[in-house]
Structure formats: C-alpha cells, structure tokens
Amino acid sequence: MIAPDRIRLTGSSAHFSKPPALRPGATIGVAALSGRVDPAKLDAGIAHLRARGYRVAEAANVRSSGGPRAGTDAERAAGYRSLLTDPGVDAIFFARGGWGAARVLDFLDPEEAARNPKIHMGGSDLTTLFAWLHARAGLAAFHGPMVAADFARAEPDPETDASWEPVLRGESPIAYAVGPDQVLSPGSAEGPLVGGCLSLLVALEGTPEALDTRGRIVFWEDVGEEVYRLDRMLTQWKRAGRFDRPAGVIIGTLENIRNNGTPDPAAVSALLAEHFAGAPYPVLRDWPSGHGARNRTLPLGARVSIDTAGGAIRFEEPAVS
Fold first, then answer.
1. Taking a C-beta distance cutoff of 8 angstroms, is the pair 318, 166 a contact?
2. Rounded CA gap, 40 and 290, in Å?
3. Domain containing 243: what range?
4. Does residue 202 sit in helix, strand or coil?
C-alpha cells in the first residue's frame, strides 16, 4: 500500500493521514455506530447517493431493529470494521447519530484503522469516533451530512448537498464568506480544524481522546440543550484549558437551544458574548454546520484560515490525497 499523504499539525508533532479522495462511481459504505436507523430514511438517503452515481454497501447491522441502538456494541463495531477492512469500500458514511458510539471504541483497533485510511463522514455522536481516529490512528475525518438524516430529506438542503462532494474530492482552496454579524471576536488565524458536537467533546475530558485545541481552529455546535447546560459545558471546557490557546473558534449551528423550555435566541447570544467577546483570537458564530438543515461539510484535520477583516473562512488544503 502506498503510504497516504499526511497533514502536519501546526504547533504539534502529530500528523493526520489523508484518506484517498472520493471519485465518481466510488463505493460508499453506510455504517451505524449509534441509534437505531429508520429504514425508510435509510432507503431515501441511499437512493440519493445512488442518484449521484455512487454504489452503496451497507454494514450488516445498519437495519438492526432491536433496542435503542443499531445492534449490540459488538455488532455495531463488527459492522463498521467490515466496511473499514473491505478493499471494495472506498469511503464510510454514517447513517445517523444518537448515542452509543463511545461504547464501541474498546472493540476497535487503531492500527487496523491506520492501515485502512478511508473517508469517514458524519457528525453528532460520531464526534467521539472521529476524536478516536484523530488521537489513536492519526486519521483525518469529515464533519458533514449523514445518510438517514440529511440525505433522507424530501428536498435535501441545497447548501448541504453542494458542499460535501467538493471537499471529499479535494477541490481546494475553498473560500466561504463571513458576515460582520457573525464575528464575536475579530482577527485572523490559521491552523488545523478540529471539533464536533460540544456535548460529546466535553464528555471526552478524562479520556485518551480528549481534544488538543492548542494552535488549532476549534469548531463546535450542539442541539437540544438548555442555556444553563450550554453554559456549564463551555465553563467546563474553559476551566479545562481548551479555550486558552486555540488559534481560533468557529461556532456552528446551535439548534433548538432553550431557556426554561422556550427558545430564547437573545439568551444564547448573551451567553456567547460572555464567553467569547474580547477573546485574543478570532471567534465566529452561526457557521452553517451541525444539527440544522444546513450542514456544510468540514475537513477535520486540514488547515483552515479565518480572516474577519476580509470576511472569509478558507479551507487552505485538501484533507484527501
């Protein structure tokens, strides 16, 4: 096997391996490491991929209907590993999030993952797996749409649907406009992108997969939280030093964040200002990635730059080889 290209992390001795780029007609494996998958949504998402010209291979457990998750811990791990080690599968997309991905990590082998570098794309509960891939196997991953969620919509969001193929194919550089109302703290910065769903990132504290944010652009988003719980998580991460020395912060979609059970955008804005206004690095909010309908694909592990004066976020390099 030809050794994959590697991304050197600014300010760190670690490296992320770049998986092979997604090519037209590739075979996409659909894995389920978390919640039980709705078969109708799965069928709709798979049909969407096939309509784009891709072949699809399902993990054996992806249609498991017993219990709250897509099979037992061992079954979910085995289904994922079968796709990981199958030379006929070019990339692995995840059916949905939910909960339970952390429970399969003890069934996985980081050397096996490193020997089989493939595109991994998903979000939500997959934050835990991606942190494991980064920390234990040195692999880049992609925060982006999921098969039985984003791709299963009757009309997938155009921005979501337009963003994933260029990123997975390595079309670079890519630039996106940033408005002045998105800036919580001005500045410019560049570094490797890391992150995911905040509640999962905070839950990694005390584990070998706890995120190293030093010198990196940190992306986070979340869904269905109360304002006080969001404050609690941000405070814990702040006290753990995760906001001490990042290169910059990108805050994604904060979907259905409530204040005593009622949506309260003003309270959310006030909380974000309390935590990030005046930060010594650039901080942006309302980036269209996360649990909302808009879920722009992000190359976790690749160099990204923020320039608030120029009003842009740029993906400076591909995260695929």
1. no
2. 22
3. 174-315
4. helix
What's the burial of 182, exposed, middle or buried (CB within 10 Å: 0-12/13-18/19+)? Answer: middle
Q: What are phi and psi of 136, to 5 degrees?
A: -100, -30
**3 state DSSP class of 188:** strand
Task: Name the catalytic one among 124, 163, 199, 305.
Answer: 124
Residues in the chain: 321
* Catalytic residue selected from 58, 75, 209, 221: 221
Residue 13 has pLDDT above 70, yes or no: no
User: 134 an active-site residue?
Assistant: no
Separation of alpha carbons 146 and 130, rounded Å:
14
Domain end, chosen from 114, 145, 169, is at 169
Number of domains in the chain: 2
What is the per-residue pLDDT across 150-159, written as a single tens digit (0 to 9) for each?
999 999 899 9
Q: Is 185 strand, coil or helix?
A: strand
Q: Which two tokens stand for residue 104?
A: 């399969």
Told to judge if 75 belongs to the known catalytic residues of this protein, a careful annotator would answer: no
Active site residue 124: yes
Residue 66 binned pLDDT confidence (cut-offs 50, 70, 90): confident
Question: What is residue 308's three-state secondary structure?
Answer: coil
Can you tell me the distance from the alpha carbon of 111 to that of 84, in angstroms, rounded to the nearest whole number? 12
Q: Is residue 1 part of a domain?
A: no
Q: Are residues 148 and 259 in the same domain?
A: no
Decide: 50 and 44 in contact? Cβ < 8 Å.
no
pTM for this structure? 0.94
Q: Does residue 321 form part of some domain?
A: no
Which residue, 64, 78, 132, 69, is CA-closest to 102?
132
Q: 245 near 215, Cβ under 8 Å?
A: yes
